[in-house]
Structure formats: C-alpha cells, structure tokens
Design a protein that fits this description.
Blueprint lengths: L2 H13 L1 H6 L1 H4 L2 H11 L5 E5 L5 H7 L4 E6 L2 H13 L5 E5 L12 E7 L8 H11 E12 L5 H14 L9 H10 L2 E14 H7 L4 H13 L2 H4 L5 E3 L2 E16 L1
Helix pairs in contact: 8-11
Length: 258
C-alpha cells in the first residue's frame, strides 16, 4: 500500500476502532454466516483474516480452526479487536500489524484466507489478491466480501463520492467481473458467489467516522442535490431534507487455489 493511502487508513480507523467493534452490522449477519459456512467445508487448521477490523470474522473462524491470525494495518484497531476477541473467550487468535499487499508469511501456510468488507480501502487490489493466493496452500480457499461496484458509471461515480466524503480512505468498490479477473490472474477459481443488500442507517453510518458537523452537512447537501435517477440504485430514504438511510450491494466470493 502506498504511504499516503496507508496514512489515510490509519487516520480514519485508528479513531473509529471501538465503533467498529461494537457495530452490529460487522458483528454478525447473513454475510458473515455465509463466509463461515463456506469456510467450514475446508476443515481449516490455519486461517488468516486480512484487514480484520473489529475482529468479528477472526472470532467467527476461531471456532473452526486450530489457529487464526488477525491482520490489520491500523494498530489501534488491532488493539480493540484483540480486547474484543479475547474478551469473548477465544484463545487461539493472534494479532499482527501488516499490509494486505505485503503479507509477512511464507508461501502455502494457510488453509483459508478471509477478507471481509475491506478491499475498497486497498491501494492495490490485484497485489492484495496475489498475496492471499501466495500464502494459501494448494486447494486452499480465499473467502472474500466487499461492497459491490455498480455497472452504471453515473451511479458508481455518485456513490464513490458519497463514500469518500464520509471516509477519505475509501478508494472504490469493484464490479463482479473485475473480481473474477483479479482472482483468475492470481491462480484462483471462483466456485461460489452470492450477493446481498445492506441497509445503512445514515446517522449511524456517518457517526462511525466521527464526521465534523460541517462535513456531514456538505455530504448531505451533495446527496440531496443529486438527481433522483442517479440516487435510485441505492434506495435513499429521504424525509424532507433529512436522509434516513440508503442501501448498497455486497459481493461474496469463494475461490479455490489451483
């Protein structure tokens, strides 16, 4: 990851670490249940959770594997995740600060690599996918989840700007075809995919990033001034000048090495 992008990620998520630990949308959900169900089929011994955030995915996989390594770029986030995971009784999870694009492990050491709702922050997604493939054993699984990029350029541009005003470390979301290409280039074959919708409660979503009132007002004005047809794919709920919620898509992929 480039240092400017790494600095953005650390700045955004260092201050928001505890909010991500307590966020119900990350702690559970149909998306996490699907990743766990896919991972269980591998009967994994060693699992790596890349960009662990609040540690919820690492915690979920700790009941399936002998050991889990939870990796994140942001040390305050790792600290918050460690307190959460250990406080939940999981003693087989280790925590490590490192970048997704430069994993500090030898090749072929993990049975499963997970990465949940994080790649839209990565500076170099193909490099991160390549690293995940490198550390997987032959026939190992990459379980990947992220915001689903939109095929319509106007809609994609709009929601990217919304995301970046709320969180400057956001790069962009990727379309399904892009993910398939990245995985194939790394020697990974998609065996299963799923898509889901997720509702974002506006005040909670903006509050997690500790937006200044002026910045939040500027973002709301941007959304309200955007043509309804461009907003439509994201199902914004607006009452007067108040934004209540919107929704976006998630893509979940199970890919096998070799």
């Amino acid at each position: 990851m480039t240092e400017p992008q790494a600095a953005k990620v650390r700045a955004q998520f260092g201050a928001a670490a505890e909010a991500y630990v307590t966020c119900a949308g990350f702690a559970a959900g149909d998306d996490l249940a699907q990743l766990v169900a896919w991972g269980r089929t591998a009967e994994p011994d060693r699992v790596l959770d890349v960009a662990t955030g609040g540690g919820h995915t690492a915690l979920a996989f700790s009941s399936l594997a002998r050991s889990v390594t939870a990796l994140d770029l942001t040390e305050p986030m790792l600290g918050a995740a460690a307190r959460h995971v250990r406080g939940s009784g999981a003693a087989n999870v280790d925590f490590l600060a490192a970048e997704a694009e430069r994993l500090p492990f030898r090749a072929g050491v993990f049975d499963v690599v997970t990465c949940r709702i994080a790649p839209h922050h990565f500076a170099d997604v193909p490099a991160a996918v390549g690293q995940a493939a490198r550390v997987l054993r032959p026939r190992g699984l990459l379980l990947l989840e992220d915001i689903l990029g939109h095929d319509d350029p106007a809609a994609a541009s709009f929601i990217t700007e919304v995301e970046r005003q709320r969180d400057p470390s956001h790069v962009r979301a990727y379309r399904g075809s892009e993910w398939t290409a990245y995985l194939a280039a790394a020697g990974l074959t998609v065996t299963d995919r799923a898509t889901m919708r997720r509702v974002r409660v506006w005040d909670q979503w903006t509050g997690m990033m500790r937006m200044a009132p002026a910045d939040k007002s500027r973002l709301e004005r941007f959304v309200l001034d955007t043509a309804p047809a461009v907003r439509a794919p994201f199902d914004f709920k607006i009452s007067g000048d108040r934004i209540e919620s919107f929704s976006d898509g998630l893509i979940l992929l199970r890919a096998r090495k070799g």
